[in-house]
Design brief:
Elements: H1 6-17, E1 28-30, E2 36-38, H2 41-53, H3 59-73, H4 76-79, H5 82-87, H6 91-107
Helix pairs in contact: 1-2, 2-3, 2-6, 3-6
């Protein structure tokens, strides 16, 4: 799942809009490495973790999965590793950790 595809970008932008007041919007920003990320992804992830903990699944799981590449890009998993997310007693946080570990496994070069 590359976060540079137009379809992915539009999906993530729509997910991030859920945390905003009606009529508000969030920009994409360019990081020092030249990549573009959607602002609001961390806040939307926290909102979705809460929804997950309340028993919501399906689309909430997909939205959390879609956030993972951006969460890596902005350094969230340098602050707390995917394993630390998995080790938490919080089910939603654990789900994000599992998604992050799966993303890393898919993104690793062959033979690593």
């Amino acid at each position: 799942m590359a976060n540079s595809t137009p379809q992915y970008s539009e999906q993530l932008a729509g997910i991030n809009q859920k945390i905003l007041a009606e009529g508000a919007s969030l920009p994409r920003v360019q990081l020092q490495d030249g990549s573009m990320v959607h602002t609001g992804t961390v806040a939307a992830m926290l909102y979705n973790v809460q929804r997950y903990n309340q028993g919501q699944r399906g689309s909430v799981e997909r939205e959390l999965e879609l956030a993972v590449p951006t969460l890596f890009k902005v350094g969230l998993f340098e602050l707390f590793t995917p394993q630390e997310w998995c080790d938490a007693s919080n089910p939603g946080r654990g789900f994000v950790g599992e998604c992050a570990r799966a993303w890393l496994a898919r993104s690793a070069p062959p033979g690593v």
